[in-house]
Specification:
The chain has helices at 13-29, 55-70, 85-96, 112-115, 119-126, and strands at residues 4-8, 32-39, 76-82, 100-104, 131-134. It is of the alpha/beta class. The protein has a 5-stranded parallel β-sheet with strand order 3-2-1-4-5, sandwiched between helices. Helix 2 links the parallel strand 2 and strand 3. Helix 3 packs parallel to helix 5 (119-126).
Length: 135
């Protein structure tokens, strides 16, 4: 049913919590697992403290995640891309023929103020495949 699962990761608690669901789905359906991390383009003239703008930090994050899944007996492919997270996630899902995107939710979409800024909400609206949100 879910031949290819895309799991976008960052350093959030929600991503770590979603990893258990990813493990269960991938094992149940013998899915191909692709881990994606997006290096965000910092706005010009704006120094950012966000570690997700550092390619080195993102590369290490992907390696650690790959090791975590390997310890569960799951072989995961890793991809690193640069761009705006929601658009990049959906582009990669289309590119790899993902049957499912699994991602954590930070709850920003629960309010009118956060709905427009939520990566999760944008992915849900733009995705070429089903999206499983782990609260």
């Amino acid at each position: 049913m879910f031949k290819t699962v895309l799991f976008p990761i960052d350093q959030s608690r929600e991503t770590r919590e979603a990893a258990d669901v990813v493990t269960n789905v991938v094992k149940k359906y013998s899915s191909r697992l692709v881990l994606l991390s997006v290096v965000e383009e910092p706005p010009p003239d704006a120094p950012s403290a966000d570690p997700m703008v550092s390619p080195e930090v993102v590369a290490k994050l992907l390696e650690n995640a790959q090791s975590l899944f390997s310890g569960q007996g799951i072989q995961a492919e890793i991809m690193e891309r640069q761009g705006k997270p929601a658009f990049t996630i959906c582009d990669v899902a289309d590119e790899i023929g993902a049957d499912l995107i699994i991602m954590g939710c930070r709850g920003l979409g629960l309010t009118n103020e956060g709905a427009d800024d939520s990566v999760t909400t944008r992915v849900i609206n733009l995705s070429p495949c089903p999206v499983l949100i782990v609260p």
